[in-house]
From TrEMBL:
Gene3D superfamilies: 3.40.190.80, Fructose-1,6-Bisphosphatase, subunit A, domain 1. Its EC number is 3.1.3.25. It holds the Pfam family Inositol_P. It catalyses: a myo-inositol phosphate + H2O = myo-inositol + phosphate. Coiled coil: none annotated. PROSITE patterns: IMP_1 (PS00629), IMP_2 (PS00630). Keywords: Hydrolase, Magnesium, Metal-binding. This is inositol-phosphate phosphatase. It comes from the Bacteria. SUPFAM superfamilies: Carbohydrate phosphatase (SSF56655).
Length: 264
């Protein structure tokens, strides 16, 4: 049976909105968190509760779909499925804990290797980003389109901490200094999904990150692409939803110049 993408998109945005309400409700209860790999890598009970909520809804409605999420609530080898849900229940958990309003629930749906639906919800700002492949990107129903040209020197660029040598972590990657000096500014926003959606909205102009997992960017990449953004890896190759890797996402006017920092 063929997949009804319209219906899939409506279902996905519905459950992500509901998950946003759950997140806000749970945040008002006492917020416990624990360290994962180190003191800055945090996870809360809300992360897994939101993922559990989404997984239960998806399994009930689409039992034949594969699901992968950061918190590992649903263990499947996602590559066996034609249709795959890629979930980050909270992208930007540290921001969530600090109530810094740049975090969100991110869902990307990939069908036969192609991103077909992206949904990202920022509960602090009550912004629901939605995109369907070839049918545009929207925030709260308002169409997003990066059709107005811009200059590199006008850009506001988001990034994540980026080391010259990832093992030593003793010097910041020179590209960040270069970006800082040649654009309007650099922001370490602390959330990949929201950064990508803010580019789609036009508040940020680009986002660079050396290493992310597919759940960090799947939803945001689908939204930004539909808004007209350009997204590659840092070496200019195309982004897949199968492997983790770098992200270089930008307004179409400045992607090439940003890429040249990493490839020239
Ligand atoms: P997370 O909040 O879902 O963990 C922070 O710069 C961005 O990188 C966030 O999107 C964050 O996602 C992601 N990230 C991925 N791995 C991380 C890690 N080990 N520690 C902190 N943030 C991580
Ligand atoms: Ca995490
Ligand atoms: Ca994440
Ligand atoms: Ca997360």
């Amino acid at each position: 049976m063929d997949l009804d993408i319209k219906e899939l998109g409506q279902f996905a945005s519905g459950i992500v909105s509901e998950a946003g309400l759950l997140l806000l409700k749970l945040r008002n209860d006492s917020l416990d968190f624990e360290e994962k790999k180190n003191h800055a890598d945090l996870v809360t009970v809300v992360d897994s509760a939101v993922e559990r909520f989404l997984v239960d809804k998806i399994v009930e409605r689409y039992p034949s779909h594969g699901i992968v999420g950061e918190e590992g609530v649903f263990e499947t080898n996602v590559s066996h499925f034609d249709t795959q849900w890629i979930i980050d229940p909270i992208d930007g958990t540290t921001n969530f804990i600090h109530n810094f309003p740049y975090y969100g629930i991110s869902v990307g749906i990939v069908h036969k290797g192609i991103g077909v639906i992206g949904v990202v919800y920022n509960p602090s700002m009550n912004e629901l980003y939605f995109a369907e492949k070839d049918h545009g990107a929207y925030v709260n129903g308002e169409k997003l389109s990066l059709d107005k040209p811009m200059l590199f020197k006008e850009a506001l660029v988001s990034s994540t901490m980026f080391w010259e040598d990832t093992r030593k972590k003793d010097a910041i990657h020179p590209s960040l200094l270069h970006i800082y000096k040649t654009t309007r500014g650099l922001r370490l926003v602390g959330g990949a999904a929201i950064s990508l959606c803010e580019i789609a909205k036009g508040t940020l102009s680009a986002y660079v990150a050396p290493m992310l997992s597919a759940w960090d960017y799947a939803g945001g990449v689908i939204v930004l692409k539909e808004a007209g953004g350009v997204i590659t890896r840092l070496d200019g190759t195309s982004v897949s939803f199968k492997e983790s890797g770098s992200i270089l996402a930008a307004h179409p006017s400045i992607h090439q110049e940003l890429l040249s920092i990493y490839t020239d």
